Amino acid sequence: MLELRAVSLNFGTVAVLDNIDFFLRPGERVGLLGASGTGKSSLLKMAAGLLATSSGACLNSYRHPLLVFQEPRLLPWRRIHQNIEIPLLAAGLSPQQAQARAQHWLARVGLAASAQAWPHELSGGMAQRAALARAFALEPDLLLLDEPFSALDPALRADLGQLCVQCAADTGAAMLCISHHPHELVDMVERCVLITDRKTKLFELGNSAASRQEVAQMLHRTLLNQEPLSS
């Protein structure tokens, strides 16, 4: 479980997060929203162990958190299957194990036919699929997604979002996902957390599509500063 207790984060004299509480249970999928500069990526970095709190406690019992960035960050001088295999070899797998796992996950994300391709030969959506294959091949128990689909068109974002949900469900990984697109995010997660005024506000999502889209619409208006949140 990931738990933030009374966490504050300052960069010099600038307060980014102020006394926030947050939790993420095993296997749970949670969305994180907020305007630019509200501390979303900082929260992900704290969850990944890459950033310390200024005060409060960040308690993380996940053993294999993995952060997926906005860009695919594929090695341009390696073929796609090698981009998947290299981290596996570094993690201690044998070449045969790394190859088998890379083949499995490339097939799982629909890139089996592109295993021998170079990164520059892939479209943006295909490159993000390769990045997801690399992430899930490492068998994380906590997947931290920092807007990995933001540069794609809406249809591709929705498609890759659902693929990510399916892969997380297959592996049992918990997922914390940043997005600026609440209408798409509510179809990926079970709860949404909005960061505003250095605080967090939790939104539970219902089971019906209508209730989820109602929450998404409210979050959308809030992000556009058209309607303040009620307390």
Q: Structural class given helices, strands, pairing?
A: alpha/beta
The SSE string, one letter per element, is EEEHEEHHHEHEHEEH
Strand content: 25-35%
Strands of the biggest beta sheet: in what spatial order?
Answer: 5-6-7-3-8-9
* Rg, alpha carbons: 18 Å
Low-pLDDT regions: 226-231
Mean pLDDT: 90
Question: Roughly how much helix do the residues carry, as a percent range?
Answer: 25-40%
Q: Give the tally of structural domains.
A: 2
Q: Strand count, sense and closure of the main sheet?
A: 6 strands, mixed
- Which of globular, elongated, flat, extended, rod-shaped describes the shape? globular
Count every beta strand, where a strand is a DSSP E run of 2 or more residues: 9
Count of helical stretches: 7
Q: Gap between N and C termini, in Å?
A: 28 Å
Structure description:
The chain has 231 residues and is α/β, with parallel strands linked by helices. The protein has 2 domains: 1-37 and 52-63 and 183-231, no CATH class; 66-139, no CATH class. It has helices at residues 40-47, 80-90, 95-108, 124-137, 154-171, 182-185, 209-223, and strands at 2-11, 14-24, 29-34, 55-60, 65-68, 142-146, 174-178, 191-196, 199-204. The strands form 2 sheets. A 6-stranded mixed beta sheet has the order 5-6-7-3-8-9, with helices on both faces. Strands 2-1-4 form a 3-stranded antiparallel beta sheet, with no helix packed on it. α4 runs parallel beside α5 (154-171). The longest helix has 18 residues, at 154-171.
